[in-house]
Design brief:
- By secondary structure, the protein is an alpha+beta fold.
- The chain contains 5 helices and 5 strands; from the N terminus they run E-E-E-H-H-H-H-H-E-E.
- The strands form 2 sheets. Strands 1-2-3 form a 3-stranded antiparallel β-sheet.
- The termini are far apart.
- The relative contact order is 0.12.
Length: 205
Amino acid sequence: MDEAPAAAAGWYPDADDPGLLRYWTGMKWTNDRSPAIASPTLSPAVHYSGFAGTHEHQRAAGAKSLATAYVLWGLLGGWGGHRHYLRRHGAAIAQTVLSLLAVILANLWLSDPSATGLLWVTVLLTAFNLVWWISDAIALPRWVQEINDAEASEASETIAERRDRRTAPDTSRPTAFPFRFDEPSATTIVLDPASIPWELRDDPS
């Protein structure tokens, strides 16, 4: 089952139990499972072959794509685009600041080529950003898996909470009776005088 071909991350029918959905990170199966609950907002059609299928629930799960992360890394890696996509905003802002600083220093050096100090600082910043950029490419698969695993766990907890709310008894509307059960015997019924029509009372006052 774990030898299955690659597919988009999301919820798929569990091959071990057709009544459940199991989360696929894009690279491996997790232990997160949830009941296959029909929803009017999701497509009920599930095309199942082996392990994989297509289900609109995977769209709602908000799974991150490794391919998208690499595209952003290649185009906007120096500015932290891939990190913003994977919700690593702090490091993404740091990358943006360092890249912007390197660009400013390079422009200052171009306006005054004799300022070798600016040149060396620019070279060091650029080299640091390049090493950081390459190391991010190595870490991307792990980051995508971590965020998809976290979102799968959150989705499972949300589904479980909704199921529990549907099956829980409604105690928000207490039943009102015109009588009460006296203690200790629950079979002795004592009528509340206020509930007896006035014309049936022995003392109408």
